[in-house]
Amino acid sequence: MSFQEGERGWTVMAGEEGAGQEKGFKLLGILDVQRTPCARDAILHGAGGSVAAGMLFFLSTSRVRRSFDVGFAGFMLTTLGSWFYCRMNNAKLRVQQRVIQEGIRNKVVYEGTSLDPTNRPRADAPSGPS
Amino acid sequence: MAHPSQLGFQDAASPVMEELLHFHDHTLMIVFLISTLVLYIIVAMVTTKLTDKLILDSQVIEIIWTLLPAMILILIALPSLRILYLMDEINDPHLTIKAMGHQWYWSYEYTDYEDLGFDSYMIPTQDLAPGQFRLLETDHRMVVPLNSPTRILISADDVLHSWAVPSLGIKMDAVPGRLNQTAFITSRPGVFFGQCSEICGANHSFMPIVVEAVPLEHFENWSSMMLQDT
């Protein structure tokens, strides 16, 4: 999709859609792992945690069925933990991004005026009648 | 705009829609995990050799499957309520636009400074220029300045309509005799499409909405040009 300038301003033109757009891979048909931020990492961490927990339990108890249960529980907990940790960090980054954007916008508006937050009073300026 | 066979949301063009996208991702991950859990339990139940015909109750599992769903619901409800109240915040709009639904077109009025009003009809398929979108383009777009909080007052002239623009995260019913208010900020320039979202007669599918977000200078030029034309 591309923007082109026309008579009435910018027009969206149908261009080569799909060039560079990958088809998302959906787990269980619902979770688009490639396009959802943090999803891929969370699932991979979950898979790793599941294998690790299941193997450890099996090596210590030799119970196959229970090892699968423990592995699955490990998958759930690791996925959830990784997901929330990544999302929390993303949310903090987004807040910082908004503060910076607001700051850039305000800088343009207030630069050189008395409201400019970077305005520092000069040390040699007289503060009272001499 | 939406692309063919699209299932997910369109890219966000307003901060509220960005929040909604994040909330959707969060909830979808929870749904995915619950689905995986149910699938695993089904497979485990079907393949087990263990049977106990005398079991009557089990306090532990009853507690687990009461507390766990409650915690999941709280995990979903808290961000949901946060966004709900975020959408209702009064944000001191710089511009007020009135959108009136008619059978079968929208009309927009910009009456803050001058009396500017125009109708917005769908461009018929046979009149489309190459590259324009079928059933989505209109002859006059609702132009708004970029990054400016804009209030939109929505009503209807005849029957129920609904003013919806998915990429802005807005849908508001247009009810005859009632004024509904919503507000938005467009965080990136572009053209955003929507369609009437309340059945309103034969041409309900043929009264689209097009919002064009432009820098303030372009918005001022556009409004001067529109005033001269009218």
UniProtKB/TrEMBL annotation, chain A:
Q: What subcellular compartments does it reside in?
A: Mitochondrion inner membrane
Please give the family membership noted in the entry.
Belongs to the COX20 family.
| Name assigned to this protein | Cytochrome c oxidase assembly protein COX20, mitochondrial
**Swiss-Prot/TrEMBL keywords:** Membrane, Mitochondrion, Mitochondrion inner membrane, Transmembrane, Transmembrane helix
Look up the signal peptide feature and give its range: none
Gene Ontology cellular component terms for the protein in this record: mitochondrial inner membrane
Q: Which PANTHER family match?
A: CYTOCHROME C OXIDASE ASSEMBLY PROTEIN COX20, MITOCHONDRIAL (PTHR31586:SF1), CYTOCHROME C OXIDASE PROTEIN 20 (PTHR31586)
TM spans (from-to): 42-61, 67-86
Q: Which domain of life is it from?
A: Eukaryota
| Region of interest called Disordered, as start-end residue ranges on this chain | 111-130
Q: What is its main location?
A: mitochondrion
A single GO BP term for this record reads:
mitochondrial respiratory chain complex IV assembly
From TrEMBL, chain B:
Q: Where are the transmembrane segments?
A: 27-48, 60-85
Residue span(s) of domain Cytochrome oxidase subunit II copper A binding:
92-225
Pfam families, A to Z: COX2, COX2_TM
Question: Which Gene Ontology terms of cellular component type are present?
Answer: mitochondrial inner membrane
Write down the membrane topology.
Multi-pass membrane protein
Q: How is the cofactor bound?
A: Binds a copper A center.
Q: Where in the cell is it found?
A: Mitochondrion inner membrane
Free-text function comment from the UniProt entry: Component of the cytochrome c oxidase, the last enzyme in the mitochondrial electron transport chain which drives oxidative phosphorylation. The respiratory chain contains 3 multisubunit complexes succinate dehydrogenase (complex II, CII), ubiquinol-cytochrome c oxidoreductase (cytochrome b-c1 complex, complex III, CIII) and cytochrome c oxidase (complex IV, CIV), that cooperate to transfer electrons derived from NADH and succinate to molecular oxygen, creating an electrochemical gradient over the inner membrane that drives transmembrane transport and the ATP synthase.
Which InterPro entries does this chain map to? CcO_II (IPR045187), CcO_II-like_C (IPR002429), CcO_II_C (IPR034210), Copper_CuA (IPR001505), Cupredoxin (IPR008972), Cyt_c_oxidase_su2 (IPR014222), Cyt_c_oxidase_su2_TM_dom (IPR011759), Cyt_c_oxidase_su2_TM_sf (IPR036257)
One GO MF term on file is:
oxidoreductase activity
Q: Which domain of life is it from?
A: Eukaryota
Record carries keyword Phosphoprotein: no
- What is this protein identified as? Cytochrome c oxidase subunit 2
Q: Which UniProt keywords apply?
A: Copper, Electron transport, Magnesium, Membrane, Metal-binding, Mitochondrion, Mitochondrion inner membrane, Respiratory chain, Translocase, Transmembrane, Transmembrane helix, Transport
- What's this protein's family per the entry? Belongs to the cytochrome c oxidase subunit 2 family.
Gene3D superfamilies xref list: 1.10.287.90, Cupredoxins - blue copper proteins
Needed co-factor(s): Cu cation
Cytochrome oxidase subunit II transmembrane region profile domain residues are: 1-91
Instruction: Identify the species of origin.
Output: Xiphophorus maculatus (Southern platyfish)
Q: Does the keyword Transmembrane helix apply?
A: yes
Q: Which GO terms describe its biological process?
A: ATP synthesis coupled electron transport
UniProt catalytic activity: 4 Fe(II)-[cytochrome c] + O2 + 8 H(+)(in) = 4 Fe(III)-[cytochrome c] + 2 H2O + 4 H(+)(out)
